[in-house]
Amino acid sequence: MRRVLSWLSLTIFAFCCAGNVCAADPPAKALRFGKLVDGKGKVWTDAIVILRGDRIADITTEASKIPAGTEVVDLRGYTAIPGLIDVHTHITYYWDQSSNVLPFDQQSGSRLPAVTVFLAQENAHRTLEAGVTTVRDLAANDWDDIAMRDLINRGAMIGPRMFVAGYGIYVADAPPRPGYTTPSGGHADNVGEVMRVIREEVAAGVDVIKIFGSTGTDKDVTGYQTYTFEEMKAAADLAHKYGKRMAVHSYGPDGAKDAVRAGADSVEHATDMDDGTIAEMVRRGTFYVPTIDHNRYYVDNYVAFGWTPAIADGLNDYIRRNFATAQRAFKAGVKFAMGSDALFTMCGQNTRELGWFVKLGMTPEQALATATTNAAALLGKEKELGALAPGYFADVVAVEGDPLADVNVTINNVRWVMKGGAVVVDKTK
Q: Which of 30, 153, 267, 427 is a good FRET partner for 169, with 20 to 30 A between their CA atoms?
């Protein structure tokens, strides 16, 4: 009888633990803030955020709700905002400034992938220092972004939470080399090849599909459409079938127009869009990620990049057109998400994009939403990211000042950053 009871007790215990009944809750931690902007429309005074593990358990103003024995972090001199989200980065594009090789030439493949991922930790750290705890990384070489994402997720590397695209999908941009037989990563020239590459990307473990729907990058500000509507539609349909969202790069209006009609979830850059395309974006809920500031970064560094003043002039002209298009899109009601297009030493300047958004007519609160609630919705993570609320990831940023009165508070005054319940930046001491 004792053996039966002993077996029965063990069985019940195992059953309970399997259902988490017997599992001990992780120890609580409490964060105290003078103000808290929760991303859901409420500003709290004397707020207390109670954490368990990597999630928020509660937000309250009552100190009596802090569990006994809880570690309390006093940040009452600061305002809390949700961890920021940058939906267009290239974190693995690293600029080794000790080298005499120009930064874009350093990305040509001479550096081993493992070395690139290791060096790119610097970009990841700078991104966190800007208060950005999550990124959508839109194209890398050699699956570097997948490796970096996985290293961060397993705790072997410190960096933002990453949603990655692997290789961006692009049309042929150079003739094949003699003896060349295997397409390079991301290369696809027709519907069949686009579908093959998307299947390869999904098999590799990407989170999102990126299509280069036009020419234009770094010093090249042309925007000639590359993929047809039919090719983009096939790509969007297959990406969505696999549960992946699709971003389309288009420097010009034609690729953007077809991207929106094809079902892209976001359009990147996109200058000179006509009223019909903008209206269709509003109707479909397509996100616009204008990345205005990235060309400012290129202009600031054109000499270091080995470019001419004429190239800088072309970039400035593109900025003017990019800004004007974004201003029209905002007035029309298009949904925006903050994307910096940060690479090299621009990592850490991610939130300067918000300054452009305020210049084009947004309030600081609306600009902040592009990097929180809107960005989370674009990722399909609006119930886990982009807000401070019970059940959400404990991604919390402390800023000095009022971010709803002055956008520069978010851009320049980040003092403390928590990602998933772990402090990753502390400039309060």
A: 153
Distance between CA atoms of residues 140 and 169, nearest Å: 11
**Three-class DSSP category at 313:** helix
Alpha-carbon span 214 to 228, nearest angstrom: 10
Residue from 213, 224, 219 nearest 267 by CA: 213
Q: Which two tokens stand for residue 244?
A: 């992946």
Residue 109 banded pLDDT, cuts 50, 70, 90 = confident
pLDDT value at residue 184: 74
Q: What is the pTM of this model?
A: 0.93
Cα 170 to Cα 193, 200, 215, 216, 316, distances in angstroms: 10, 14, 9, 12, 26
Please, what's the largest Cα pairwise distance for the chain?
Answer: 91
Average pLDDT of the chain is: 93
Please answer whether residues 339 and 268 qualify as being in contact, where contact means their C-beta atoms are separated by less than 8 angstroms.
Answer: yes
Q: How far apart are CA 109 and CA 375, in angstroms?
A: 32
- Joined together, the tokens standing for residue 94 give 């690293």
Q: What count of other Cβ atoms lies within 10 Å of the Cβ of residue 125?
A: 17
Average pLDDT over residues 204-210: 98
Find residue 287's DSSP bridge partners. Answer: 266, 335
Q: In the predicted model, is pLDDT for residue 7 greater than 70? A: no
Only one residue has tokens 């980040």, namely: 414
Residue range 107-122: mean pLDDT, rounded: 91
On the question of pLDDT at 350 being above 90, the answer is: yes
Rounded-to-integer distance, Cα 68 and Cα 110, Å: 56
Instruction: Give the model's pLDDT for residue 276.
Output: 98
Residue 180 above 70 pLDDT?
no
Which two tokens mark 282?
């509003």
Residue 250 in contact with residue 270, Cβ under 8 Å? yes
Q: What percent of the chain has pLDDT over 70?
A: 92
Given a contact cutoff of 8 angstroms between Cβ atoms, the answer to whether 132 and 351 are in contact is yes
Instruction: Say which residue the tokens 């003699």 belong to.
Output: 178
Residue 296 contacts by C-beta under 8 Å, 6 or more apart in sequence? 319, 352
pLDDT at 16 over 50: no
Q: What spatial distance separates the first Cα and last Cα of the chain, rounded to whole Å?
A: 63
Rounded-to-integer distance, Cα 342 and Cα 293, Å: 9
Decide if 36 contacts 47 (C-beta within 8 A): yes
* CA pair distance 134, 128, nearest whole angstrom: 9
Phi, psi (5° rounding) for residue 396? -135, 135
- The DSSP secondary-structure symbol of 41 reads S
User: CA 257, CA 380: separation in Å to the nearest integer?
Assistant: 23
